[in-house]
Amino acid sequence: MNKLILPALSVLAISRVFAADEVDFKKDIAPVLETSCVKCHNPEKKKGKLDMTTKEAFMKGGGDGKIVEPGKADESEMIKSILLPEDHDDAMPPQDKAPRPTAAQIEALKKWINAGAAWPDGVTLKAPDSK
Ligand code: HEC
User: Fold this and answer.
1) Distance, CA 95 to ligand 1 centroid (Å)?
2) pLDDT digits over 8-52, tens only?
3) Ligand 1 center to residue 43 CA distance, Å?
């Protein structure tokens, strides 16, 4: 094979990986929040005064204020609460109450926040068991 073709192909392959790395709200974020959070953070059950089902409510945050700082995942209360040890009183989701996000899901959440936490207009989240 021509010596120039291989490097060119690997550059292509790498840019593919980066493209695949982009976080998609509906595919990568909504299901995580719905599975792990929305059961307790919705308009009927606003634990901590926090409703995570709409863009407006999510961005407003809970009783203690905003839960995400767009562009700053590590300073976002939502990420901090997810990263607490499972048995910590403030850990989210509370121990044994809902599936904890996996490491890959947490990475996706962080990437999403660091990319600006864009929530498409009109998307409303629902807990998996609610109709
Ligand atoms: C089983 C119910 C339950 C689930 C599931 C749950 N939470 Fe909570 N959450 C609570 C309760 C209860 C509080 C209030 C705690 C308090 O005030 O001491 C709370 C409070 C919070 C707060 C603080 C809000 C504020 O301003 O005081 C954040 C942030 C939060 N939850 C994020 C999450 C995230 C993110 C998830 C999903 C990964 C999640 N929660 C899943 C019950 C839940």
Assistant:
1) 11
2) 666 666 555 555 568 999 999 999 999 999 999 999 999 999 999
3) 13
